[in-house]
# Entry
Amino acid sequence: MRRRILLYFMSVILLIVILFQAIFTFAIYHYYYGNIEETIRQHAQTSRSFFDQYHPLYTFDLKEYSSEIIHSFQMPGTNLLLLNSRGEVVQSSSGLAVEKKVNIPTFLKEGGTLKDIVYSPLGEKVMTFYQPLFHQDQVIGYLCYETSLTDIDKMILRFTIITLVLNLIIASAAFILSWRLSNSFLKPIQHIISISSKMAKGQFQNRIETKSPDELGHLALTLNYMADEIQENERLKNEFISSISHELRTPLTGIKGWAETLKDPDYLSKDEIAQGMGIISSETDRLIHLVEDLLDFSRLQANRITLFKHTFDLNELLEEIVFHWKIKAQEKQISLTYSGDCAVFWGDENRLKQVFLNIIDNAVKYTGTKGEVKVSLQKFKKAVSVKICDNGQGISEEHIPHISKTFYQADIKHNGAGIGLAIAYNIVALHGGKIDVNSEEGIGTEVVVILPFLEA
Ligand SMILES: Nc1ncnc2c1ncn2[C@@H]1O[C@H](COP(=O)(O)OP(=O)(O)OP(=O)(O)O)[C@@H](O)[C@H]1O
Ligand SMILES: [Mg+2]
# Structure
């Protein structure tokens, strides 16, 4: 991965550097060469205009006036050759006799100008510029300016070397930067890989350390969250197994004890036999209830619960539940009261009964003797709200967000498997409603079930 990041970054940077170097060299070459050409061209054109203006002073014989022409039209930094119409050198500004004949191209004969770059016999690079001279619309000779390009080439080379060195420095800096950048990517990724492989092996106590707010930080937080959830589920599963074993053992011990006793009924009074049978029956009910809860829970997990909806009076249902539960509440001297008006509702009556039974069961279970449990129903335009308030032990703040989770028990001292509320939340959600729990430790709990009126 590091190699790929480096390769990618370096290819991009080298491409930019090479492109910049090429454009810069090309631009500087054109700037200097263009400048020289332009200066000579302007001088040559001025010379030609001057010659045009004053040519009546001259005869056709170039040779005779060659010195004057050279003297008037020469340009500093260049060597001026005066050529006749056949291209033979008549005179040069250097004063040296030049035995040279230039092949004049046709367009030059027709009055055009020519710039050329040639190499002198000594191997020197030279720019030449030809300017025809006219007399009565006839080309009678040519001015040929020659200038050496050696110094300019040296200067261009110097600039090119400077920019090349600068570019190499930039490329090295880019290499170091991309190395550090790839490290800053890779180090957290390697850390995530090492911790997540430990998690894959079941070592969930490790957490990924992250402070970066980017996608990697997000990934690390998600993996940490996943580990938290797996650990929490593991804890709940273990708690569930232990509480379920306890829940099963208690009634089974009662049943077994009384079954053993009843084996020999001759020594028992009628009342004792009746009491034993009663305990066996109620403990069996408890077991059936527990198994039903577990079955319901597994159906809910698999989304296999179907609601059988019909129209019924929620008020009547609550009255009935409270009436039956009163006996159980009285055992703990808890006052269980209900208030509400007729509320015709369309839903699954049996499932909703299960919801309220679970919540009222909790209220009575987690409220001490002489406590109070108030159930009330309130009808609104679009929904009905059922409030179950108790002044029992309450739930501490850190447990409230979790009590709807399956097998979660805020208080493990009491009998229970931690399924009741999970089932209730699911059934209410299937009716399009919700359950809110407000509680304060030591003060009491308020559970509000909100059920929207559904269209039949
Ligand atoms: N009214 C309440 N007062 C105090 N704690 C409550 C109350 N209702 C629920 N809880 C807490 O929420 C937890 C979850 O409730 P839930 O009904 O799901 O489980 P449970 O009562 O322990 O077992 P189950 O209902 O399956 O027999 C309980 O263990 C209890 O700690
Ligand atoms: Mg419960």
